[in-house]
Amino acid sequence: MRVRFAPSPTGYLHIGGARTLFFNWLMARHFGGTLVLRIEDTDRQRSTAESERMILDDIMRLDLQADEGPFRQSERLAIYQEYIEKLLIEDKAYYCYCTDEVLEEKKQRAIALKRPPHYDGHCAKLTERSAGPAVVRFRTPQKAYVLEDQVAGRVQFPAGMMGDFVLMRSDGSPVYTFCCVVDDHLMRMTHVVRAAEHVTNTVRQLMLYEAFGWQAPTFAHMALVLGQDRQKLSKRSGDVSVREYLDKGYLPEALLNFLYFLGFTPAGGTRLSGHPEILTREEMIASFDSKHFHASPAVFDLAKLRWMNGFYIQKMPLAELCQRVGNSDPLWVRKMASIRGDASTLEDLPRLVEEVYGDVGLSDEARLLLEPCAKALMDGFEGLLVSRHDLTEEEAQKIFKQLASTLGMQGKAFYLPLRALITGVLHGPELRVIASIRGPQWLRSRINHIRQVLL
Ligand code: GLU
């Protein structure tokens, strides 16, 4: 098996593109095949080096490197030229001198007459090569084509659906459809797995395979990824670039785990994680099966991605998590460990640490709960903290128990006001953890502060 990922460097790596890359990578890994990376940059107007650099970087961050490549189509122009010549010599292609203006005018006329806006074949019968700018057009066979797609099933293309399409622009640059066929053939692709939007290109490609007498690869066109608004995923429906997610603290492994279910449902089974939808890379490779891609579009569910990412953050070894956020200060790490259960992204970690361990105030609802028992609670707590310099979690727990029994309070009726006192809010990490991290000195000054606020 040989598969490829063939991005056009005309922007960043899109969520849909990452899914295509990942599924090709999985094909190669599952079936012991080879993944080729090909940069489709023959469109000089739209391709940029910057975009190529970003895409390569994103691929590295996702750790989905190819086995061969990157090959750049812009460096293979002589090869395409050779195959264009071949089609010209065999009269399967011809030069067309129609100007853009004339073509546009004809197109509008065809649309007005409710005819298919195909090229009308004006230059198809010319036998001499004239001077002046010309494109090369393919002489489209007027017959029906059938695509046996692994996902979409049998797709029929009736005869006459396609006009004579352009293979090479007047500036000499060959177009995507053409280069794609030449490369997929020369690079010996056995399977082409790509987005559903390429189905219409495929009929052109089938014609080209036939014209060259080459065998076409097996095609699998993956159903679209939709935004939550059920429209094709686009900037409108939220972030669409992989880079934005990674920069915002989504973990590559969580993102890939999420993409895995966006178009494919693996058979159930025991997972290392204990959760049916959280798979290690090895589990994903093992349970991958290209025959079970979803035929209907998948919806990008951000809430699910956030949940998955949170799951990974909670399960990751602490040392590794510190490395990812780039902070290994021991006190900060303790704080972070106490709040990581509430984090959905890496970005949440410093924010939550600050929220819980920064300058805390006293929320209205916390105040309401604390007020009735504030004096007794603070006096008792302060008494138990006297002359202490530090506080382990166990010691803190002991003190809480003692305090509760002295005050004759228990359960929530005790812990909520205590939480209000220490944290200023009614939710958060375990109180004994917070108390231990804060330490007796801080707790005493907090009590003093709240005394001034309340009493
Ligand atoms: N360059 C095309 C794209 O980025 C690739 C299509 C294909 O995989 O054949 O959409």
What is the chain-wise order of helices and strands?
EHEHEHEHEEEEHEHEEHHHEHHHHHHHHH
Question: What is the structural class?
Answer: mainly alpha
Number of helices: 18
- What is the fold named in CATH at topology level of one domain? Rossmann fold
- Spatial strand sequence of the major β-sheet: 1-2-3
Low-confidence stretches: none
What is the top-level CATH class of one domain? Alpha Beta
Q: Estimate what percentage of residues fall within beta strands.
A: 5-15%
N-C termini distance:
76 Å
Describe this structure in words.
- With 455 residues, the protein is mainly α.
- Among the domains are: 1-69 and 223-315, Rossmann fold, CATH 3.40.50; 318-357, no CATH class; 364-454, Arc Repressor Mutant, subunit A, CATH 1.10.10.350.
- Helices cover 47% and strands 11% of the residues.
- The chain has helices at residues 15-30, 49-62, 77-89, 100-112, 176-186, 199-212, 242-247, 252-260, 281-287, 302-315, 318-325, 330-339, 348-357, 364-370, 374-385, 393-407, 411-423, 431-454, and strands at 2-5, 34-39, 68-72, 93-96, 135-138, 145-149, 153-157, 166-168, 191-195, 218-222, 225-226, 298-299.
- The protein has a three-stranded parallel sheet with strand order 1-2-3.
- Strand 9, helix 6 and strand 10 (218-222) form a beta-alpha-beta unit.
- Helix 8 crosses helix 10 (302-315), helix 14 crosses helix 17 (411-423) and helix 15 (374-385) packs across helix 16 (393-407).
- The radius of gyration is 32 Å and the shape is elongated.
- Bound molecules: glutamic acid.
- Glutamic acid binds at residues 6-8, 40, 176, 180, 194, 198.
